[in-house]
Amino acid sequence: MATVSSHTPELTSESSSSHSAEASLIDASLRTPVMVLTGSALVWLLIASVLGIVSAWQLHTPSFLDSCEFVTHGRIQPAQSNAFIYGWGINAALAVSLWLMARLSRGVLPGSGVLLLGAVFWNLGVTVGVAGIILGFSTSIEWLEIPGFASPLLLVAYALIASWALVVFRAGRSQEIYASQWYLFAALFWFPWIYSIAQVMLVFSPVRGTVQSVVHAWFSSNLFLLWFASIALAAIYYFLPKLLLKPVSNYYLASLSFWWLVIFGSWSGISRLIGGPVPAWVQTVGAAASFMLVVPLVILAMNFYGTLSGRWSALKESVTLRFIAVGILALTLVLVASVLTSIHGIAALTQFTFVTTAQAQLGLYGFFSMVVFGALYYIVPRVLATSWASAPLASLHFWASALGVTLLVGSLAVGGLTQGKLLADASVAFTDVTNATLPYLFSAVVALVVLAIGQLAFALNFFWTLSRASAPAVRSVRVLLAAQSEATR
Amino acid sequence: MNRAPIIFLGVFCALAFSFVGLVLTNQLTYGAFTTHVDEDEGKAFPLQSPGLAAQGKLVYQDLGCVSCHSQQVRREGFGSDIGEHSRGWGERQSVARDYLREERVLLGSLRVGPDLRNLAARKNADGAEFTADWLYRYLYDPKLVVADSSMPRYAFLFKKQQVVGQPSAKALKLPETHAPAAGFEVVPTARAEALVAYLQSLKDTYAYPETKNVYTPPAPKKTEEKKEGHK
Amino acid sequence: MSADQNKNLTAERGASDESIQKVHAKLISEKPEPTEGFKKTPLFLLGFVSTMIFVTSIYVVHYRAGFSPMVYDERFDPKAATAGGSKELTPEQVIAAGKKSYLQVCATCHQATGTGVAGTYPPLAASEWVVGNEERLIRVLLHGLNGPVEVEGKTYSGAMPAFGKVTGGGYNWNEEKISQVLTYIRQEWGNKAVPIAKDKVTEVLNTEKARAKPWTSGELDPFK
Lengths: 489, 231, 224
Known about the structure:
The complex is a heterotrimer of chains A (about 500), B (about 230) and C (about 220).
Chain A: H1 20-29, H2 31-60, H3 73-105, H4 113-135, H5 151-171, H6 179-204, H7 211-244, H8 254-268, H9 280-292, H10 294-308, H11 314-317, H12 319-340, H13 344-350, H14 354-384, H15 391-424, H16 430-436, H17 438-468, H18 477-488
Helix pairs in contact in A: 1-14, 2-3, 2-4, 2-14, 2-17, 3-4, 3-5, 3-6, 3-7, 3-14, 4-5, 5-6, 6-7, 7-8, 7-12, 7-14, 8-9, 8-10, 10-12, 12-14, 12-15, 14-15, 15-16, 15-17
Chain B: H1 4-29, E1 36-38, E2 43-45, H2 51-62, H3 132-140, H4 142-145, E3 158-162, E4 184-188, H5 190-199
Chain C: H1 3-10, H2 17-29, H3 40-62, H4 78-83, H5 91-110, H6 128-131, H7 134-143, E1 145-146, E2 148-151, E3 154-157, H8 175-185, H9 198-207, E4 215-216
Parallel strand pairs in C: 1-4
Antiparallel strand pairs in C: 2-3
Helix pairs in contact in C: 5-8, 8-9
């Protein structure tokens, strides 16, 4: 475009594109894997919700279910977090990234047997892992409690699924690589690296002393920033311009923000160890890296809010955009929170309180899960070539999730700050500190129930839609390719 | 596709940068720490924990105690862990060497319950030490010992058995409201004994050379004698 | 919000994938047409990024604690400390160290208030043994004391173990620790006496190398 027009170039609509037939072919080829991954993700989401409600209620009323050792808080809480992260989070992330990768590479998935095997292994691994936690084999490492006998299975399953995503990428025909593809490509590569390092250095051949804490902090923040956040950002970069028919605002800054987020984000996890038994320089460097996250925060805000500006009315019509908008807001807040809690004075107040829980929920639920919900609302009907069974259920899901996550994060944050202030005052007896958080824990439980209602609505909607969708006609790869070449002529 | 190899290289280097800088550097600088041999006391610190305590740590892990309890003491001035007007959770900041012999470092990330790092070296709210007896009763029903405790009961770590002949020396002394029926007594299981042994081994009192590396604010000009030490 | 909504959920209204990629590929190499306000964007960002780098570098340099794996307090500077002869403790630190050892061990018998137990453990507060001749006091702590002793007119008969690095001693405290505890008790509870130096303890230890059992009160009379 040598001659620059006076306003930003518009995107051509799908219906007028010559490649729309190809898109539906890609979608059809992804049907079974995406359905299996999404379906299992939703089942795990419901399991995690129930476990989460039990665990939060146990914090409020410790005598709840304390007579049975399998449901004591110390086992239910890690079971919940692992079911959520590995059961819901990674299954859903893989479903969305497979679809995004296939669409953006414009490559049809050449057969899904290996993928399905991977999905089955993954779910088997998570089931064995969560059962292991409940039976008492937890490793007691936060977010890595799945015992050592289940994690290799997870890595094998992941390898099967992720390598297929790379096959699709290589087989695809797009020439330009878009921002979403960088994030997806990077995330798919990083996850096995951080997960296997964590398993080796923490579980199988533990390193000495608090080097374990350093590895663990590195793993946890990378799991959030380099896996969950990257996949969610890939989805946002795709769906915003797609649904608003407007290119991403200030897109030329997107690659700067990608590299900056990744390079400094992977160092920023150490800020959780401020004041801890690791060398002071490590704590300082971790805090400094967290401060640097302000730069990608500003750029992402420019990209996303800039794209949405002037088009807020589109949110009314698109449930996907509504979820994504909430996700963008949560991303802004979570980056601000991680910068703030790395400042010594604030860290002294917020460490070891529910503020850290609130941050984790904001990132994993408010940001990642909301964006993935939005993406799934777009993906599922196209992959099934049908429409959603119930719009009211979708609306219920949105409102329950938005209100639920706001209430959850809000009550945990305020409760955590109260807890922090009281903890810092040594004249307050410890039992008084914990008792002061009870009303906030109660409202957190209410929030979790509201979230569970929304998730139930989504699951019902999904399985109902699935049952209504017509069975796919059996096509051989050759027929698929023939139809493709037809479309491109 | 032409830029894919460059992106791959960049992606690899981005993570390699933090892996090398954070994980490998620390593994090389202090992952190789050895115990500190104290000539005066003729022992190597940190001390090897006794066998029962090591088993107790496994019980601590399997019950997931780390989800509510932390095990690290922050420095003075950073919260109210130690120092004047503090909760007296330790004498000094926890250093890396304190955790040298631990196969699983359980720093914890939430303080729904108090920090446990120096449990055996400090006093409870009544000013007494945490005796095994106190700990058993606390695990059996926390509200017996601390009226408004928010810890769940771990009664499944104990068993009710019939008194045969003499009551067992290990039987818990429970008040009327919680005592078992006549002729029965409540005894800790092996898991409870191991757990309590572990809790009683938690103390970080040894002063390693690096614990002296504490910042002292510069002395005010009034007291000239203090300057002698800082030439 | 019914069938219409359903249609909206699946209608092909979005942008096509290849146009997304093509358009953005051009955008990445081409800044948007500068209109009012656009020129500020790159400058503002450049300034912001530079400020962040500057501020963060200062933060890292200030709190780097010498990049030492032995420092856990970020405010501590190892270079400044070694320059000041870190081995030496200030008088306050000596007393604090002495107090710590006292409370850990000595207070069991002599009590935290230094009052002792009538008839058994002599008091250390207002005691002529404590504020008196350091030769006698050092020997008591190094080798122990058996048999009756008279302190401020009252008699006490306990058995004090040997705390120094002597034959038969179970505590094996080094000279520095001995001097710290003695310095502490000599200035606490109203006592006012000069501190005891580590070298003095070493001197006494060498003089009494042959001593293998605790002192009795009579044996210490020459050192009154």
